[in-house]
Amino acid sequence: EVQLVESGGGLVQPGGSLRLSCAASGFTFSNYWMTWVRQAPGKGLEWVANIKQDGSEKYYVDSVKGRFTISRDNAKNSLYLQMNSLRAEDTAVYYCARGLSAFDIWGQGTMVTVSS
Amino acid sequence: QTVVTQEPSFSVSPGGTVTLTCGLSSGSVSTSYYPSWYQQPPGQAPRTLIYSTNTRSSGVPDRFSGSILGNKAALTITGAQADDESDYYCVLYLGSGISVFGGGTKLTVL
What we know:
heterodimer; A: mainly beta; seven-stranded mixed sheet; B: mainly beta; 51% strand
């Protein structure tokens, strides 16, 4: 079964850090661009970052540039999002998704709450 | 800054047809933006409906179709059913690795 499973969410204080993981299974992970999408409570979906198959290209939404880093480990079929200098406005469910211009597989999401 | 526009809300009667649109704050949407559409029922993860303007994702019924209408991308739902009541999001690919979601349309079936 093709599947993405996120983990690593939780409660963190403003200014803190968190690392999200996304475990892929059921497909050849190294063949696909991968993307992080987030959704703040009661709000819409927001594209956050993506990474090319070999990790050579990475792109970010302006609001997270310099604070978030996307990475992947193709040997472990895993995608990551290192989030530093977290702010209250980063509070959201974070989804990993497969694809570049469209996202055909989605995980169930992991909740990140930034609060003191 | 590029803004992708969607109707905030729409309603349709059971069995009816509704067309949701996806536009740009400046300029026209074309197939070059590879518009895609996602359905998100309350409390659930998004589900892919349409990609590359008009290609249905696996398992999506043919009641859902995508197109370009005028200067916007469009998602048409025919024969609306109660479980079509969801939030619908479009995505436009701007190139250079960047994608942007629309603000979403809340569809009510009543």
